[in-house]
Amino acid sequence: GPGGELNGGAAATTPHVLFIPSAGIGHLTPVFRVIAGFSSQGIDVSVVTVLPTVSAAETDYFNGLFADYPRVRRVDMHLLPLDASEFASEDPFFLRWEALRRSVHQLGPIVTAATPAVTAIVTDITLTSCVVPIAKELRVPCHVLFPTAATMLALNAHYPIYLDQQQLNNEAGPAAAVVGDIDIPGVFRVPRSSLPPALLDVNKLFTKQFTDNGRLVTQADGILVNTFDFVEPAPLAALRGGKIVPGYPPVYTIGPLKSHATTTKAETGGDGSQSQLDEWLGQQPARSVVYVAFGNRSAARLDQIREIAAGLEASGYPFLWVLKTTKVDREDDAELSDVLGEGYLERVRGRGFVTKGWVEQEALLKHPSVGMFLSHGGWNSALEASSSGVPVLVWPQLGDHRVNAMAAVSAGIGAWAEGWGWDGDERMVTGEEVAAKVKEVMDDEKLRASVAVAREEAAKAVAEGGTSYRNMHEFVAKLKGAP
Ligand code: UDP
Ligand code: UDP
Fold first, then answer.
1. The pLDDT value given to residue 170
2. Which residue lies with its CA nearest to atom 1 of ligand 1?
């Protein structure tokens, strides 16, 4: 019967894991990859689903998951209304996180009524401080999936302690701003200028969530992280050794997580762009293509986009550019020819492939024509590049990207375009700067060699007996009730 293959020993129970994902493709990606892996192994999975999503890409992604894995149960949850006027001009994804946080208590009766009984909950870091107390009340073990770098997890663990030391979040205290660098014990000092900008102001919505989650995650039963030990030894040792928070929960590194999608967006979308792209890639020389993409929610200003365009043109390399002009994809109705200016697409025809559509990035990075990746530094992207041996030039755009850039540099998987503009600052990077940096990274044989080592290590980590492989098995054994 269903799940029967799991009953290995007499004491084993059939797990039924309830996933409570957050919002944003970068947050859904690692969760869905874990769900796909579990479901393929016959583990019973339910997924809390909130529709409509913020972006169209997320809805496609949910639909793809349920189409590919029909045994995965969909549990619909409705959001309680959130008065957006309470929050001045917040990012739409942060607002969605807040709405989810204020709605998850509705899950109590759902969990209680579920058959078979829910044996474990896995939620996203952004919802942790709200989900952990519910799970405790229901006496269901609660695990957290951390969707970015272990270095960020270390910062998240340390930040509330930092505030306490500075007494910054003391309601009575006058200070509300982080004034200096943050030295994460056993990791490194994060310069003030590289912190996620919201964290500089303790009154920001994001910062309140981040602080609460950082505190409550210590009560979780375990934390899954999409990374692997080789790339982030220092933060992992610091977290596991209790150097940041004594008695921190077990940290299971399980990356690089691989895509399990069998129905690709290109197939469902069916606009033919994927086959055009494959054909174009096939015509380019080995390791010649500069792949440019800034994730799902970083959009550059128009004048900056024009400079990037000039830089790619001047670099002399073929390039593939996934271009976004808005944070939320639904709002992006700009015409490429208008965005890039008169004559640009004609001039680069054949050499430059520019698209506003979805690309299968993980697969694309494995293509032998791809020579480097100009990226915002989203951790999913950085790991996908490292497992394909593609050097990354990190141009951080917002949030955790500069911390990720520091992690990528110390891992030897990327270079960081330090000092380039980010998160609304006015510094414009010129086309000449872009071209020069791209050439520098393309010619950097030392970096290419260290990325090749990381690719080997990534493969080893997930192969039988590797660190991520063993952690995943240990975690699944725990779900099955092993002592
Ligand atoms: N992605 C993709 N195709 C696209 C855009 C994004 O496959 O056209 C995937 C990408 O491979 C990665 C994720 O979306 O797995 C982006 O996550 P990341 O953490 O890099 O950045 P974020 O979008 O959260 O800023
Ligand atoms: N994060 C965290 N704890 C939280 C919420 C977020 O550590 O409670 C981290 C996580 O790495 C997340 C990042 O902070 O990805 C937020 O960065 P960003 O502003 O770029 O948002 P995202 O791209 O993740 O949507």
1. 64
2. 361
Cα–Cα distance measured from residue 106 to residue 191, given in angstroms and rounded to the nearest whole number: 40
Residue 309 has which token pair? 């365009």
Closest CA to ligand 1's atom 24: 26
Residue nearest to atom 4 of ligand 2 (CA): 210
b/e code 342-372 from CB counts within 10 Å (16+ = b): eebeeebeeebbbbbebbbbbbbbebebbbb
User: pLDDT per residue over 46-85, tens digit each?
Assistant: 999 999 999 999 999 999 999 999 999 999 999 999 887 8
The SS3 call for residue 268 is helix
CB atoms within 10 A of CB 121: 25
Six-digit token string for 158: 């340390």
Query: Per-residue confidence at 14, pLDDT binned at 50, 70, 90?
Result: confident
Centroid of ligand 2 to alpha carbon of 148 (angstroms): 8
pLDDT over 90 (residue 426): no
Give the mean model confidence (pLDDT) for residues 103-132: 95
Q: Give yes or no for residue 194 CB within 6 A of ligand 2.
A: no
Distance CA 137, CA 124 (A): 19
**b/e string for 62-101 if b means 16 or more Cβ within 10 A?**
bebbeebbeebbebebeeeebeeeeeeebbbbbbbbbbbb
Q: What is the DSSP secondary-structure string of 73-86?
A: EEEE-PPPP--GGG
Ligand 2 touching residue 397 (CB < 6 A): no
List, in order, residues 6 or more apart from 238 with CB less than 8 Å away: 154, 184, 185, 186, 187, 244
User: How remote is the CA of residue 338 from the centroid of ligand 2, in Å?
Assistant: 32
- Predicted confidence (pLDDT) per residue in 370-401, tens digit: 999 999 999 999 999 999 999 999 999 999 99
In this predicted structure, the answer to whether residue 269 has a pLDDT above a threshold of 60 is: no
Tokens for 218, please give them: 């210590």
Q: How far is the CA of 314 from the centre of ligand 2 (A)?
A: 34
Average pLDDT along the chain: 92
3-state secondary structure at position 452:
helix
Catalytic (active-site) positions: 27, 124
